[in-house]
Amino acid sequence: MMNIAVLVSGGGTNLQALIDAQNRGEIKNGKITCVVSSNPDAYALERAENNNIATKIVNRKDYDDRAAYTADVRDALLDAKADLVVYAGFMTILDEQIVEAFPNKMMNVHPALIPSFCGKGFYGLHVHDAVLASGVKLTGATVHFVTEDCDAGPIIIQKAIDVKNDDTSQTLQKRVMEECEWKILPKAVSLFCEGRIKIIGNKTEII
Prior knowledge:
Layout lengths: L1 E7 L4 H11 L6 E8 L5 H8 L3 E4 L8 H14 L4 E4 L8 H6 L4 E5 L14 H10 L3 E8 L9 E8 L6 H25 L3 E4 L2 E4 L1
Parallel strand pairs: 1-2, 1-4, 2-3, 4-5
Antiparallel strand pairs: 5-6, 6-7, 8-9
């Protein structure tokens, strides 16, 4: 049984999707054993506590530089004996120390179809603002492995939805979360824990 650690910063809706999937028996050979938050006031911490999941706060505001912060997050994950680290609305970019400690063992869900609308500055509603401004007819979400380059790691799963003519950034964000993120993130986590993801260069193969 693999130990799954989840990194959070806010409300924790993706964490809740993982918890719900786990409670339904959809995450095979893995269990969420630790939630680490960059924000002491994150509602995600309450979600974890309500489900008897251990929590740890590593407050970004207590650190002057990214290297020191990354080192403490890394150490918290190592202490938790994490086999898989899931970024679920974690709003801090960590440095290479974390990638070196957990190579091909970290995944993130991004609210767009990578390689479009991703990278530095593309987070939260900024992503959906850009999608709507571009006029694309499809958007969605991507689960990918985390590497040193932001949103550039091997893609595991993607799911698309239509962009509607009357969509706002808020309505699009809600639909991408509910119809894409909450479905593919637990699936990707289970695939990892089952040992069914093969990485070939910057691509993945589901076996």
